[in-house]
Amino acid sequence: MIRLAVRVRRADAEAVLAELLELAPNGVEESEDGEVVEYAVYGAPGELPELPDVRAAAGPALVEIATREIPDDWYDGWKRFHRPVDVGGRLWVRPPWEAARADRLDVAIDPGQAFGTGAHHTTRLCLELLLDLPATGPFADVGCGSGVLGIAAAKLGWAPVVGLDHEAAAVEAARANAAANGVQLEVRRWDARRDPLPAAETIAANLLRPLLRAVAERLAPPLPRHLVASGLLREEAGEVAAAFAARGLRERARREAGEWAALRLEAPRY
Fold first, then answer.
1. Taking all residues of the chain, what is their mean pLDDT, rounded to a whole number?
2. Which fold has domain 2-76?
């Protein structure tokens, strides 16, 4: 088995990911190292995208491309990487091969080989901020990935819930996870830079800074009652808060973990 990894500048990562998923429609593994994001795909020789195609997909954002052989038991090692997450003493977010807890609201997420289960700081911060909100009315999970936030929202009591993502692999993963959790989650493809935001009382947007700025620019009345924004480095939080404030959403809370930050924003009538 071969691991093909492409490292790109974080500022351009979302655009590169869209191009890579055209070459690897089953999804990619994502990891971050400061201002660099690494996307990796796995396959036998001859199954992986051609290197010239990968370089073209990365374009000027390219930092490095690397390949290496991995051991036959890599899949079990990958599974061990995903561990359950206890959020606020209320939610237990876990991969399906880990046990549920009777004293927590159970959210089982199969990450496939391209998405997370909720352990990343950005997702955990979103979930923590959502636990502070009243779980009423429509909910939108913008940039839903494997569906963690939308599924948790549905289990907490929001309804109806919609999940939006640009990537076809994410839409498929979120639909499968919603079905496995027994919740109603409408999932569809969506482009942050072109498509309007859905009407929702609460929106969760776990996106990189450029896409959060795009979401802010597209906000129009009626504003959501609450918006939780994550995917931010600490030093980016003030800039993004100001972008949403210019559209009428005020910062009410901020949480930080490691190098990451998340914001809870609120419409002025509340």
1. 87
2. Alpha-Beta Plaits (3.30.70)
| Residue 116 clears pLDDT 80, i.e. is over it | no
Q: What is the pTM of this model?
A: 0.74
Domain ranges within the chain, ordered by starting residue: 2-76, 83-266
What is the rounded distance in angstroms from the CA atom of residue 204 to the CA atom of residue 264?
A: 9
Beta-bridged to residue 37, according to DSSP, are 8, 32
Q: How far apart are CA 171 and CA 188, in angstroms?
A: 6
Q: What is the CATH number of domain 83-266?
A: 3.40.50.150
The model's pLDDT over 25-59, given as tens digits with 9 standing for 90+, comes to 666 778 888 889 998 887 777 778 888 889 999 99
Instruction: Name the pLDDT band for 256 (thresholds 50, 70, 90).
Output: very high
Residue 246: exposure state from Cβ atoms within 10 A (0-12, 13-18, ≥19): exposed
